[in-house]
Amino acid sequence: MKHIPVNPAALPTPSGYSHGTLAGNTLHLGGQTALDADMKIVPGGIVEQFRQAFGNVLTTLREAGGLPEDLVSVTIYLTDIPDYQAHGKEIGRVWRELAGPVYPAMAGIGCTALWQPEAMIEILGVAVIPEERLVRPSQ
Asked: Is the pTM of this model over 0.90?
């Protein structure tokens, strides 16, 4: 089985990585921080960074024909777990706005730093996309 990179034009052009890798109908979604189109981390705190990072994950998912309900696993890396917990209700509202009431297996992991020093969150995931919706990007 050939692995196919998934790199939406709407996201920053990757260098040395892929935003996603399609293996069969399983899409492995690379870690996304809150980078915007200008390659800057969005300001405003954890809720805004969650919105941008999760939106970036969903952009890659949609590029391959996936929908939020196709997510089977999400891992969230956080530089400040108490801050995330303090804003949990707001983050939950953002999740439901972007993905609906779909909750895959999840893990939240605390870490001391992420790739961009101002990043507070990085999200990665795995999705299984039904064949009838699957879009295999041309290479």
From this structure: yes
